[in-house]
Design brief:
The protein is α+β, with helices and mostly antiparallel strands. It has helices at residues 14-28, 141-147, 167-185, 190-212, 219-224, 229-237, 245-251, 256-267, 271-289, 294-300, 306-317, 321-329, 338-343, 349-352; strands at residues 3-4, 10-11, 31-42, 46-49, 56-64, 66-71, 77-81, 84-87, 94-97, 107-112, 115-120, 126-136, 152-155. It starts with a strand and ends with a helix.
């Protein structure tokens, strides 16, 4: 039976709920993609990457061959093979290498049409890989850091899965094939086409990872949880509603205590933390993209008191709504400082009252 939320939002099935949360997430977070370099390397080879700049997410797409990725900031060591896509949402420094332990053959970088090519004279197994970055418009890099894992891998050629069982992975595989064809042809306009495909790659990778249920914590784990997905969809679809914990628990057919325990374990944060982050992200977008008054935007994101909205926004962003709007319109939107992110955990009592 369909579940009706305020303002006519309806979640009919788990699949629809999952799609809805990702749609809302992508509406909040503005992400653009850019292919930077194609790697054509014979073993032995190695590439070292420093920590990415603020608002940047490195990505790698393995077209042929194999690679090992070591997260230099305490993360995992991942074995990558043809068809694999890896994102590093926290921008972690990392090393890619062939795993042989042999000193790498020096590589050179040359321009080739609309992008760069890194190649060497190694005579062993050849790696063909596309490397680029996603750029997240501020202040939404906070959502990325908080709610996505440090490494995210989708294996488009994995375990012989049929298109019927994991259709999103099949579609992602087709996108990778298209990117490979464009990179190999390298014709006029290939750079622009590859950058456009990179932007689609981000959303499709999240959707495929959600479908595969591979994340143990974060928003992907929450949205793929068979009992918690209705609450995730409700918060993303209707953040202006004055949600209470009993209401959210009821959507998930759980007691309040059980709901809180499972939600915290899956996301790593409370439902009201997520609600505040969604509201403030929507408010930051509205302040940047519209001429609506602060009072109107406060009401839009669920605050009846404009003073309460200003207080929570300042705690979350590290500046007032007016200051954010001025800086955003000038094109100088700042990176959210860590102390502001920490202060956001002490959100307004109005939001916490329902707990």
């Amino acid at each position: 039976m369909p579940i009706k939320y305020a303002h006519g939002v309806v979640a009919k099935t788990r699949t629809q709920s999952q799609t809805d949360w990702l749609t809302r997430f992508m509406e909040l977070v503005t992400v653009t993609g850019k292919l930077e370099i194609r790697c054509a390397l014979g073993t032995p080879w190695a590439i070292e990457y420093t920590h990415a700049r603020a608002q940047e997410i490195p990505y790698h797409v393995v077209l042929t061959g194999r690679a090992l990725l070591e997260n230099s900031e305490g993360g995992a060591t991942l074995e990558l093979r043809a068809g694999d896509i890896v994102l590093l949402p926290h921008g972690s420094a990392h090393v890619l290498h062939d795993g042989s332990g042999t000193a790498p053959v020096p590589a050179r970088i040359r321009a080739s049409g609309s992008f760069l090519v890194r190649e060497n004279s190694g005579t062993g197994e050849v790696l063909d890989m596309l490397c680029g970055r996603f750029v997240v418009a501020p202040p939404h890099d906070r959502l990325i850091r908080t709610y996505l894992p440090s490494e995210l891998v989708v294996r488009t050629e994995d375990i012989g899965i049929s298109a019927r069982s994991l259709p999103q992975t099949e579609r992602l595989s087709r996108l990778v094939a298209l990117m490979r064809a464009e990179a190999l042809d390298n014709e006029v306009g290939s750079g622009a086409i590859l950058s456009a495909l990179s932007s689609a790659l981000f959303a499709l990778t999240l959707r495929a990872a959600d479908e595969a249920g591979q994340s143990h914590t974060g928003v992907l784990a929450l949205a793929s949880h068979p009992r918690l997905a209705p609450a995730a969809a409700a918060l993303f679809n209707d953040p202006a509603r004055a949600w209470t914990l009993p209401e959210l628990a009821e959507l998930c057919s759980m007691s309040r205590a059980t709901f809180m325990r499972h939600f915290q374990a899956s996301l790593g944060r409370s439902p009201m933390d997520l609600l505040t982050d969604i509201r403030m992200s929507a408010a930051a977008n509205a302040l940047r993209q519209s001429t609506s008054s602060t009072e109107a935007i406060a009401d839009l994101v669920g605050y009846q008191s404009v003073s309460a909205f200003r207080r929570v926004f300042a705690q979350w962003m590290g500046m007032t709504p007016g200051d954010w709007r001025q800086q955003a319109l000038k094109g100088a939107a700042p990176h959210l400082p860590d102390d502001a992110a920490d202060a956001a955990d002490a959100a307004d009592e109005h939001d916490r009252a329902s707990e």
